[in-house]
Task: structure prediction
Amino acid sequence: MSLRLRWLLLSTALLATLALGAACGDDNEAKPGALSGKLEIFSWWTTGGEAAGLQKLFDIYGTTCSKDVNVVNSTVAGGGGAAARQVLTTRMLGNDPPGSFQVHMGHELTDTWVTQNYMEPLDTLFKDEGWSSIFPKGVIDIVSYDGKPYSVPVNIHRANVLWYNKAVFTSNNLQPPKTLAEFFTVADALKAKGITPLALGDVEAFASVQLMETTLMGKLGAEGYKGLWTGATDWKSQQVTDALTTYKKMLDYVNSDHSSLTWDQANDLVISGKAAMTIMGDWLEGDMKAKKFTNFGWLPAPGTAGMYDALSDTFGLPKKAPNRDAVMCWLKVVGSKAGQEAFNPLKGSICARTDCDPKLFDEYLQSAMTDWKKDTIVPSLAHGAAAKQGWLTEISDAVTAFVANKDAATLQSRLATSCKTAGVCK
Amino acid sequence: MNINGRRLLNLVTSEQAVAVALIVPSVIAVGVFVYGFIGWSAVVSVSRWDNVRPDYAYVGLDNFRDLFNNFRFQIDIRNTVVFTTFFVAACLGIGFVLAALLDRRVRGEGLFRSIFLLPMAVSFIVTGVVWRWLLAPRAGVNILPEKVGLPAGAYGWYTDPNVLYVHADSRLGDALHTIGLGFLADPNYGIPLAMISVVIAATWQASGFVMVMYLAGLRAIPDELRDAARVDGASEMQILRHVSLPLLRPVTLSAMIILGHQSLKIFDLVMSMSRRGPGFATDVPALFMFETTFQGNHFSHGAAISILMLLAVSLLVIPYLFWSLRREARL
Result:
């Protein structure tokens, strides 16, 4: 009897909630123009500076768009967003898209959602806000498909950065390496002193993929590297063989327990001086700051000076997004100068816009802003800009196998095959 | 209708109707959410669905062919075989020894039983996290020797990329080649050392359960049988070997089935402990299915892997079900 009573209570409560929800919905439609209701923003920003930056964007939304909109911060934890993407896919396929979601610019957005007809083009928004002249052309090209932009980039991260412990270099009378040749000289000297030259943490496969990508850039140059993703550079060429052999040689200088560490645990080795350098994106600076370590320096990854290996977090407009008007205002905030200047210093990235005030940023980010203006922009492979996700998973599988068996010829043939499977190479 | 007939109808409506009404919801739920989705996965596994937008165009067995040609899936098959073999063997061995010891009616038996069974109450996720730290090369058991002044251990545990296999240029490799089994001299027919760490964690969790099964089995053996053996002059070891073990065969079989189907589907332990491991040394089909589906958007490949896993488990479970049904019928 008590069970039945409980059921009764439960279903009554449920019905009441539904009725309330419906009533609220009616309310929304009653006042066109003014924004209200719910706006769900989906991201994987859960920790430290990124969560604080996201909160700033919400605050700005409250003041410039509407205080009546209930902004729902729906996050799925996990660096790089692998776990979040799985939840997003389930929701999009289940016809339950969030208002807007974080997605890397490039093929991760285009080949997964745009070509499959899940997104609305934003050309009108870009025209109204005058963004075509404010975002660099290289970025607009990457977020566009068929001539129309499909997402608003909020930040730019750089993947090809070499971070090093200054104390280790000064006490051993060494100079941080600018080229691959210098890297190997320095690495040999460090190894002789019992210091791990290069820290790597590839529990998540992206770290070793990213190391390969910076090596490919260093050996092939910007144009050669970009050609890999369009079919212009032959994966079977001698240049690629050289690059992969160099990559293999680099792996001789990494810590032996790399497969058990995350990228930030690898950074702990640099901070403690057990390792001298690590090649990681510039989100690592935030990790240095969080761990109160200041005696670090940075350079472009060996051989990649003049190249900006870019990835960007962007927000788009899903078709069938609930509360479309509220989402449009969110996209305006994300692309605005005020929004980007508030978000990026906290996130540890630079603005995708070119008109942000450098004084708001720290020393590293200021140097990155200078490079951003003059360097050649190349798309990051490991972070979804260069290749579609299906291709990327095949590449990272091939790299995972390679890191253990060091068989460069097999890696090269697998990479060439994956390019064919992806439909890019003939 | 006469009075009897009406009474019969009443009986039907009251008792059978209640029974049917009680069963129908779960039949529908299981039909839709278990068998319905198995059927749907089967359809997807022979479709061309290769990006987020569903595409049910029939492609026959192409996806399965792709998988068996995929190097990662080949490694996964090897890993599953290695994991299942070592895990089941270790659990049965340790579980039996513990049960035989406890069966001596030691003092504090209840306490020991609880201690050995306790890991069973922990989820595989927790087990994975705990053992990841215990076996981390820079922490855990490797630094234990340091505490007593010895040099720290250098064993890589689940980060060890080495695979034990017969090298083609070794003498054994030559021998295999001459008898036409040269293909066995390949890392794909080896033992990935990193997997042993995962086996240790899984065994820690499951051997207590096997112990309880064996203990119940041992207690069910009538004392008269053992006494008779003793009268015939058998030693305690001989009794265990020639009286108890044969009578425990049904227990062993049940334990093998339960452990076996667990290990074929293992995902959570590996995910929280070592993930794919160095060079996929600890990768398993369930992990590959998850990644290829939700990160690579290869939905049809993911469905094909899940169907293959279902087939593997069925091969194990269905004969067992038949066997136990026949036994029940005989009793």
About this structure: The first strand of chain A starts at residue 38 and ends at 43. The mean pLDDT of chain A is 91.
